């Protein structure tokens, strides 16, 4: 493939451009199929969502205007005037359907006006600005009071603005940072630009293909972000591996096409194996039985496969067409430091010094490094899983500050359990009575919030679904909130709604909401994680064993990747389940790890770590085949690949670290986890554990059963001349 592409560069480049354009344009024309609530239903909370969806409720967008004193007690007459002004201002807006009467808090310290918006709830966030302007006008007219607005639409708009700026900053920084690191790695602008170009084109093609694939596996909001993240990582990596080897072969005196072909046979082969390993790791996500993970798997697999194809087709074509222009324009100082030399890149004195302990004292080095990584992984044993809640959102926006004051004055507006019931035929009145009884029983229990008004049982237009919200005054991730969920599911619902003829608690009557989804999803991940891990380990073992024709290499590859993944888990727990790093990274500890992170982090790390491992072990095996002793081959392979692997690792660590600067806790944890794992893998694993282990094993590294060993071609018999074997006795 590479030879043909190099000999027909314009055809290969044109075909790649057409391929990317067709994928991107065709995907956009086909449109994206978004995952529905029923697609994402997990556990009892998922069943509750499905029941609510079956009711086809008209759920208009609602906002809350809270009136509180700036200090001291609330002046009720002044608050009533402000509430009347709020009602007048809101009713004049076409975006408002209705305004409630003012509702005083239990302690008389606040007044609440609820506003129901008109129009499509999906677009309410775009129109809520008019309501906020009206609230601001009332605030100006009543400077002695605090008049503020909050609600799902206000908070959503504020968070979109915050997160939008975050991601814009991340996107703005990631490309320049990547390009700058590649300039340092290559010392030439065109050489630095080629990997970025391949990565971006691969991402564009994969985005288009993912929209087509969404008609089979529905897409989620995070799919595009993951395609960008994985695509930039592997696209730059694969180009780096290929480009550095091609430059090295040219420096040895190879002709241009021969250098491209050798790079394809060596680095190109490593890219294919790595791509297969990453694909297998990502395919493990399908076993999670979760449309979110399935969507991420589809996007990741597509961008990896497209990147592999690009590295074997358009990349050789570009190298062939550019020729020695790939090394122009040169950055003077950097070029002298990074230019390829005829003797290869295996003469690094720095890396020779780093490898010395592993090569001279492999047993001690291996024991110390493995114990250090295990100690780093130990905190993962105490990992707790949870969803980020309202309490984890940044409090820098007025909408979130108003929300905190609203929940303090009216606890029923905070954490809410949703009880959803399929009403049996002829049992509507009995169901409503049971739900009302449930609401009153909960209001009398300290685990639940007192009622601000009469219980509101919503019934669908066809009378087949009834829904009741039961609030708890505790934060969504608190033990009290989980205790209230257990009491609802195990005691209160069975004793009330469960006694209605034809209603079975847990299926026909289900409890959902944030707390339920949090608990159910954490249980789901804990149940599925061993299955996904087992699948990834077994298939990765088979790929590595048959690629390197060695059982030992396959086992050590898996063991080393597990070590780096475990150490990464431990670091995430150490940082985010404690409070010591809050000031450094700018977060408030949620005393837990985001529920979806361990599963996703494992497959991504296992896949990306294989990039380096396959490339380094390929260089070591290549040296062994050339007749080097194992110790020398290990030194040659690691020092020879040091430049490209270090550059690739720095790119990934830099990009992932940018995610650690985002506002949301889940993105911070993802960024820190990925950056830490790649850093550990490219330093301790590659420079200490791998060389000491392979040096210690020696020739045993390449052991395999007879059926796996490569077949050697039969040697032709020596020609006979005048009855003697040519060369006999010599």
From TrEMBL:
Domain Membrane transport protein MMPL: 64-364, 393-706
Pfam families: MMPL (PF03176)
Location, primary (coarse class): membrane
Localization per record: Cell membrane
Spans through the membrane: 172-190, 223-243, 264-287, 293-319, 363-381, 529-548, 555-576, 596-617, 638-662, 674-698
Organism domain of life: Bacteria
InterPro entries assigned: MMPL_dom, Mycobact_MmpL
Keywords: Cell membrane, Membrane, Transmembrane, Transmembrane helix
Membrane topology, from the record: Multi-pass membrane protein
Protein name: MMPL family transporter
Organism, as annotated: Dactylosporangium maewongense
């Amino acid at each position: 493939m590479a030879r043909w592409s190099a000999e027909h560069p314009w055809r290969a480049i044109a075909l790649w451009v057409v391929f990317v354009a067709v994928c991107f344009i065709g995907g956009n024309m086909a449109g994206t199929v978004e995952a529905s609530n029923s697609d994402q239903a997990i556990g009892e909370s998922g069943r509750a969502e499905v029941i609510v969806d079956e009711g086809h409720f008209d759920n208009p967008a609602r906002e809350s205007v809270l009136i509180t004193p700036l200090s001291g007690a609330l002046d009720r007459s002044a608050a009533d005037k402000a509430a009347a002004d709020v009602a007048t201002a809101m009713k004049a807006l076409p975006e408002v359907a209705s305004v409630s009467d003012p509702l005083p808090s239990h302690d008389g310290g606040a007044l609440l006006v609820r506003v129901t918006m008109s129009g499509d709830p999906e677009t309410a966030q775009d129109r809520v600005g008019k309501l906020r302007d009206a609230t601001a006008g009332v605030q100006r007219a009543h400077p002695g009071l605090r008049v503020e607005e909050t609600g799902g639409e206000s908070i959503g708009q504020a968070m979109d603005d915050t997160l939008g700026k975050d991601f814009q900053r991340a996107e703005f920084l990631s490309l320049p940072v990547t390009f700058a690191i590649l300039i340092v790695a290559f010392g030439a602008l065109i050489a630095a630009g080629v990997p970025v170009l391949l990565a971006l084109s691969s991402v564009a093609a994969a985005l288009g293909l993912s929209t087509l694939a969404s008609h089979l596996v529905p897409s989620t909001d995070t799919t595009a972000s993951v395609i960008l993240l994985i695509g930039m990582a592997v696209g730059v990596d694969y180009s780096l591996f290929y480009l550095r080897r091609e430059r090295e072969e040219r420096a040895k005196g190879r002709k241009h096409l021969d250098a491209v072909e050798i790079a394809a046979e060596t680095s190109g082969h490593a890219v294919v194996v790595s791509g297969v390993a990453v694909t297998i790791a990502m395919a493990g996500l399908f076993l999670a039985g979760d449309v979110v993970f399935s969507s991420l798997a589809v996007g990741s697999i597509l961008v990896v496969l497209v990147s592999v194809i690009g590295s074997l087709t358009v990349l050789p074509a570009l190298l062939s067409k550019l020729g020695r222009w790939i090394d122009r324009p040169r950055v003077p100082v950097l070029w002298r430091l990074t230019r390829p030399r005829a003797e290869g890149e295996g003469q690094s004195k720095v890396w020779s010094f780093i490898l010395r302990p592993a090569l001279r004292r492999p047993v001690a080095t291996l024991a110390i490094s493995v114990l250090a990584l295990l100690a780093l992984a130990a905190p993962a044993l105490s990992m707790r899983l949870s969803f980020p809640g309202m309490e984890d959102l940044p409090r820098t926006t007025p909408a979130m500050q108003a929300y905190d004051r609203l929940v303090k004055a009216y606890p029923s507006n905070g954490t809410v359990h949703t009880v959803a019931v399929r009403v049996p035929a002829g049992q509507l009145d009995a169901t409503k009575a049971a739900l009302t009884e449930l609401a009153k029983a909960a209001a009398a229990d300290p685990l639940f919030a007192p009622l601000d008004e009469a219980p509101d049982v919503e019934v669908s237009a066809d009378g087949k679904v009834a829904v009741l919200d039961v609030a708890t005054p505790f934060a969504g991730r608190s033990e009290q909130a989980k205790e209230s969920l257990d009491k609802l599911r195990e005691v209160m619902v069975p004793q009330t709604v469960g006694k209605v003829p034809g209603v079975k608690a847990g299926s026909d009557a289900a409890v959902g909401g944030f707390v339920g989804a949090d608990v159910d999803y954490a249980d789901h991940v804990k149940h599925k994680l061993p299955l996904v891990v087992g699948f990834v380990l077994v298939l990765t073992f088979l790929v590595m064993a048959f690629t390197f024709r060695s059982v030992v290499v396959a086992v050590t590859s898996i063991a080393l990747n597990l070590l780096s993944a475990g150490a990464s888990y431990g670091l995430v727990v150490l940082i985010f389940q404690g409070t010591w790093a809050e000031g450094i990274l700018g977060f408030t500890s949620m005393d837990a790890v985001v529920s979806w992170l361990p599963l996703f982090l494992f497959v991504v790390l296992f896949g990306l770590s294989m990039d380096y491992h396959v490339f380094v072990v390929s260089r070591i095996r290549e040296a062994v085949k050339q007749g080097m002793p194992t110790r020398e081959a290990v030194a040659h392979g690691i020092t020879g690949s040091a430049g490209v692997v270090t550059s690739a690792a720095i790119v990934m660590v830099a990009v992932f670290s940018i995610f650690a600067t985002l506002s949301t806790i889940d993105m911070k944890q993802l960024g820190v986890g990925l950056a830490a794992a790649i850093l550990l893998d490219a330093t301790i694993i590659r420079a200490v554990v791998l060389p000491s282990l392979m040096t210690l094993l020696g020739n045993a590294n390449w052991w395999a059963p007879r059926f796996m060993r490569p077949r050697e071609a039969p040697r032709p018999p020596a020609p006979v001349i005048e009855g003697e074997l040519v060369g006999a006795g010599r």
